[in-house]
Amino acid sequence: MELKTEPFVLNMGPQHPSTHGVFRMRLVLDGEVIVDVEPVFGYLHRGIEKLAEGCNYAQFIPYTDRLDYLASMTNNFAYVLTVEKLAGIKVPERAEYLRVIMAELMRIASHLMAVGFLLNDMGAFFTPLMYMFREREKILDLFDMVCGQRLTYNYMRIGGVSHDIPEEFLPALRRFLSEMPHFIDEYDQLLAENEILLARTKGIGILPRELAINSSASGPVLRASGVNWDIRKVDPYSVYDRFQFDIPLGTVGDTYDRYRVRIEEMRQSVRILKQAIEQLPDGEIRSKVPARLRPPAGEAYGHIEGPKGELGFYIVSDNSPNPYRLRIRPPALLNLTALRDLIVGWKIADAVVIFGSIDICLGEVDR
Amino acid sequence: MGVWDFIYNLFPRLYELTSAALGGLPTWASYLILGLIGIVLILFFVILVVMLFVWFERRLVGRFQIRLGPNRAGPAGLFQPIADVIKLLLKESFTPSKADRWVYFLAPVVAVVPAFLIFAVVPIQGGAGGILVDLNIGILYIVAISTISVVGVFMAGWGSSNKYSLVGAMRTVAQMVSYEVPLVLSIIGVVLIAGSLSMVTIVKEQAVPFILLQPLGFLIFFLGSLAEINRSPFDLLEAESEIVAGFHTEYPGIWFAIFFLAEYGHALAVSAIVTTLFLGGWMGPGLPPYLWFFIKVLLVFSVMLWLRSTLPRFRVDQLMGFAWKYLFPLALVNIFITGFEAILWPDFPWPIILVNILVMGVLIVLWSRFFPLEEGFRLERYGIGIAKGMALTFKHLFRRPITVQYPEQRLTPSRRFRGNELVLDLGRCTGCGACVRACPLNIIHLETRRGPEKGLIVERFDVEAGRCMYCGLCVESCPVGCLFMGRSYERATYRLEELTVGMDRLTAPDRKPSAYAHPEMEKEMPEQTLLAPPKGVH
User: Fold this and answer.
1) Residue A10 and residue B163: Cβ atoms within 8 Å?
2) Which pLDDT tens digit goes with each residue over B127-152?
3) Apex CA A185: angle with CA A184 and CA A188, to 5°?
4) Which domain holds residue B196?
5) Cβ separation of B531 and A120 shorter than 8 Å?
6) Confidence (pTM)
């Protein structure tokens, strides 16, 4: 007897425990195997790019906090970098170092969340996530100390940063840096050799090198596929050319490599931070910039290596206090474009894990 | 009959007393009444212990995750399960419109009944009264009964006409049927040594606990029963991150509670069976036998929790592969070895313990090395990685929790904290309106009039706090330093109009300003609470 079967459609999201917000995947399933997937997003669209046209340049900084809310500092960073490029503003040296310190701390915090939630998607019932939260908490304490907030920092300003660090900041940061490698080792012990984790990630969701480049993926997703592309190295901004650090690369481009690259990047960030504290100069933290900045008419594209990939801002100015047009290049959205190629043919459980390994934040995807 | 003797042999003595009281009745009547008492006792016992287990699980998993865990309802949070049950009872009970009503409502019942039935043959203590019925096929009865709950789970998945439920139910059937096989086969080793299927006899035969004589059988049985009761790392049918809640996605309130009871009842039953088959049941020195039994059950359950709080879960095909490619052949080999030993050394001398442990190690290494779990993937680390992870979570059990008892224990935010609502020093305000211009959201409303001499008098200063995003740009832009961020972080309001904060509230004397953009105030602010490093690290 021949059984008649037919594929069925499963709407995963927008309300689902592991869609990292309000992402929706319309899966066509043959049993447990995914035949087709149609990503649907836009549930968190707030029109941030349009809002920018109604703000002046300084007023838009708090809005950038709300893009990728797990990495607000780097959003601030990319935006002010672009405006400074557009208006030709010099930034004091100390401010540049403070920016790098904040950006690298943010990278660690964002990667901690990425790895923690990836394991949660894999079913590790919150334990690794809670350990990651503990480390992230220390970073948030540091941010709180500097700028008074724990999620939406609004710390960087055009031409510098809003506040100098308080005197208890550096001792606390040094203590964090001395503890952090130990904790990364602990996570490795908890997870890296775990047979179940290996079975769930090795060879799953392979993103080939060519496809990674063609789909304009960036960040850890791209580097896991073995492409040596890190904007901190290939187009150094701020003071990144003064630090020594390595770019961790994957070989296969599977979920395990993406996980591994993030863990290694945390170690490298600790390395950068140690050098940054050593070199931190004294002096001004903010250059003189008019409150209602009027950059000359023209356009500029500034990009940085955010925790999730190349975060870029493209601003067109018509010499008025407000941007004429502002466009954000969200790394998570462009990394997502390869999703269909990644998860078709795998099982539901893999889809969740592969999706988690891309590490998206819907605030940034939908804007 | 001393007091200690009564406590030590509690259940047999109670049984004697009751049967003496029923002495005047005909045999069938006393038999019936004793049976009914036993059934009621088991019902109460299971429900009570399940509640205790839920509490224990949440507390222990909390400690593994460096949290405090529930500790509010009653002493140490002991009444938390009761509060949960009350909450579930009060919830609205709905039925999905397309549900198959009969199947839908029968499913929880079918799932929960076997969990209770198993306890009929679990011996708590030796002698009459320690067990409801000492069936001579006790273990066979358990295997037969526990399979029924699969039907309940599948009925739930089918009846609620939800795709997540259906996927969960399909997984369940495949998983439970597969793991049943190694589970039953691993019992045979025990039965061979004990020479009986009766649970009481099996316990009495364990001068040496069978976990030592049957290490491989224990491992297979334990892993198999974890899969049977859907515990991590085999909790696929309710994998939250994949299929939401699996088969019970569509069950509200009390129906969900019944499934919950079934799940924990089964967990309790499996812990009891492992205790009986492998850990020597009620036997132990000093303490009363039933206490030994409970201690061992709790120990087995703790190991389950430990696994749950450490491991990610398998994928569905890997799960099947693990059952059929690893556990099944190993269980067969185990029967063979045990039978061989039973012929050579019928009374199982102690050196056999070492031999068996050695054989187990060799077998695990062999199987992991030569049999791929799936195409191209072998368990090449023989479980060492898992053991390392478990050692780490165990270490965290003794580290300081990172959560605090909130209303009693408050963390101090930083000196520059950008907290709730603004604080206005009206005496210094010149009404220049710099804050109004700086605000990205245009939520500061300022009205001024010309003063009698020179300057402006502020008439209205409203902030729409409901829209405020606490960016602090207004405070930074104030040229005279009359505006402050607040320090408080726990204000809430129930009325919409209260979200617009007027001048009287902004200038109220009990307002606590923060030092944001006011560096001169930083010295007088309380120190920020930082997360302390855990004990035993640096």
Assistant:
1) yes
2) 776 677 777 788 888 888 888 888 88
3) 90
4) 10-396
5) no
6) 0.86
